[in-house]
Amino acid sequence: MKNNKLLTILLILLVLITLVGVVLFVLFTQFNKPAASLEPSIEEVVVTLVDVPEIMTNLADKRVVKMKLKIQTTSEDAAAELVQREFQTNDIVIEELSEMTQEDLEGKQGKQMFKKTLKTKLNELMQEGEIQEIYFTSFVTS
User: Fold this and answer.
1) According to the model, what pLDDT value does residue 29 have?
2) Are residues 20 and 77 in the same domain?
3) Domain of residue 52, residue span
4) Mean pLDDT along residues 67-81
5) N or C: which end of the chain has fewer CB within 10 A?
6) Region 136-141: what's the mean pLDDT?
7) Do 133 and 74 sit in the same domain of this protein?
8) How many angstroms separate the CA atoms of 29 and 47, rounded?
9) Cα radius of gyration rounded to whole Å, the chain
10) DSSP for 19-69?
11) Residue 38 pLDDT more than 80?
12) Which helix (H) or strand (E) holds 135?
């Protein structure tokens, strides 16, 4: 009788340990998926992109900059809104560039600061979604 009781307790403990192990395995595999699977596909990104036509303007140091941009939004609706706001986008780009010198735009850090400023200003305008990323597709200073 005592042997039978001990065997029952051991069997229950073994089943509990197995059950806890299975639950932990399932939780670990579900919550530890790679972040890459959360990234949108290129097809999903393309429909949220807006082309900004070439902009050529003077910098604060009387130099000239010419650039083209692609702006990635959070949704197709946000992209449609940004297309309608093209004149405002161009105005913000020209306004920001008029305060900068060629030196301000040099190197990776200068371009990243410009993108960050532009993104902040454009997001203040947006009502349908927001700007996720800004890409240079052409950039020349002289």
Assistant:
1) 83
2) no
3) 42-141
4) 95
5) N
6) 95
7) yes
8) 32
9) 28
10) HHHHHHHHHHHHHT--GGGGSPPHHHHHTTEEEEEEEEEE-TTS-EEEEEE
11) no
12) strand 131-141
How many alpha carbons fall within 13 Å on the CB side of residue 8? 5
DSSP 127: S
32 and 101 housed in the same domain: no
CA–CA distance, 66 with 59 (Å, rounded to integer): 10
Q: Within this chain, do residues 34 and 46 fall inside the same structural domain, yes or no?
A: no
pTM for this one? 0.71
Other Cβ atoms closer than 10 A to 6: 10
CA end-to-end span of the chain: 95
As a whole number of angstroms, the distance between CA 20 and CA 138 comes to 57
Q: What is the mean pLDDT of the chain?
A: 91
CB-based contact 39:108 (threshold 8 Å): no
pLDDT grade for 36, boundaries at 50, 70 and 90: low
Per residue in 91-122, pLDDT (tens digit) is: 999 999 999 999 999 999 999 999 999 999 99
